[in-house]
Design goal:
This protein has about 450 residues and is an alpha/beta fold. It has 16 helices and 13 strands. The strands form 3 sheets. Strands 1-2-4-3-5 form a 5-stranded mixed β-sheet, with helices on both faces. Helix 8 links the parallel strand 6 (about 235) and strand 7 (about 255). It is globular and about 60 Å long. The structure holds NADPH dihydro-nicotinamide-adenine-dinucleotide phosphate and (2Z)-2-iminopentanedioic acid (2IT).
Length: about 450
Amino acid sequence: MAEVVEKVYEQVVARNRGETEFHQAVREVLDSLAPVIAKHPHYADDALLERIVEPERQVIFRVPWVDDAGNVQVNRGFRIEFNSALGPYKGGLRFHPSVNAGIIKFLGFEQIFKNALTNQAIGGGKGGSDFDPHGRSDAEVMRFCQSFMTELSRHIGPSTDVPAGDIGVGGREIGFLFGQYKRLRNSYDAGVLTGKGLGWGGSLVRTEATGYGTVLFAQSMLATKGQSLEGKRVAVSGSGNVAIYAIEKAQQLGATPITFSDSSGYVVDEAGVDLDLLKQVKEVERGRVADYVSRRPGARLVTEGRVWDVPAEVALPCATQNELGGAGAATLLRNGCAVVAEGANMPSTPEAIEAFQAAGILYAPGKAANAGGVATSALEMEQNAGRTRWSFETAEAKLTGIMADIHDSCVAAAEEYGRPGDYVLGANAAGFTRVADVMIAHGIV
Ligand code: NDP
Ligand code: 2IT
């Protein structure tokens, strides 16, 4: 059976040359599927595997815009509409200089299975641009977003494709994107984007959802061992949307987050992160982690090595792909780390995952642990369609229920395919079978 998946993998590498992140994401899913296909061989019929690794549509476009100095800048925009079996394509937009087709494809591929795990009616997609918002004025970001949306608007819609935020895309960018979409279409389609502001169709809890969900997932994993987050030291990477609200929920559950980072280094705050200060620096001032240290006695900035060098019982990688490698995993394990839950997408390298699984610690892949963000986006779509607004408590209760269900689906699938406690197999198998069953029902499309 392994040959079937091997052949599909080789084809993916041949067809998508040099797109190493995409190869990595496909490899992980296909490896998990070997036992699924051995038990249910019909999932390999009718080229289903070959179809699921091939995006339904890929859009790549020019994004010209004028900077504050009057110079014309040209970026590249992407939207990969990967799979619409379960619902409209759904997934974020990433603005970061590293963005290329392979990165958007890996994110779109992961999104298919993540979205299936939420049990909501959302397909998988992803988009973005190699535009770097760091150091750009609000006016520059607005002009970029308007140009980006002028092209993207041809391809999206509340029942077709519904983008949201990701790295470099938050409330400010979603506002500019929505304003331009509304102007171009002359239509107030609130459900065309999620992560909107609360005054114009946004959902309470969407801002917090990814970080909160990641910590709730870690708590569910610990509960299987009769433990909780109470009193545990937590190492968090990143200092953006996901990291900030992972820290907030970990604190609410009695844990002590002691680190965060950005691309300039990481901060260790042994007294526990001062969340109000972190939000002020990152969300209000759009500053760097050094700005926190300069105002927080006892906190230190480290510019060598990785946040994983700091001893902690729980690790929450919340920055970017492949930020936690084999060396980081070895250090975490040596220092007694017993739980890793991924707030970011694919932050652990294959070597790191192998080390966590060999050590038998609790390890949750991003497509399960960070699904709370997109799940709450689907709740936002639901509110938009019903022209209604839920309270914070209602939305948070729904998020909590969804994260518990995802956890239980992963546990059940891992047991069904003979690897109890393997959340990678569990997430991939549970997500895949939901999508595959619907693809079969829809015929060869
Ligand atoms: P933000 O842009 O809000 O924050 C990203 C953070 O990660 C920043 O601290 C940034 O530092 C750091 N970072 C990004 N790229 C790099 C890099 N190449 N090297 C070092 N540090 C880096 O993004 P989010 O918090 O929204 O996203 C973080 C992760 O979570 C991503 O993997 C994203 O795909 C994933 N995710 C996000 C969801 C969401 O709802 N927002 C949902 C599910 C997953 P700096 O500013 O210096 O670049
Ligand atoms: O990776 C992700 O799941 C996201 N960036 C959120 C996607 C969404 O549509 O809310």
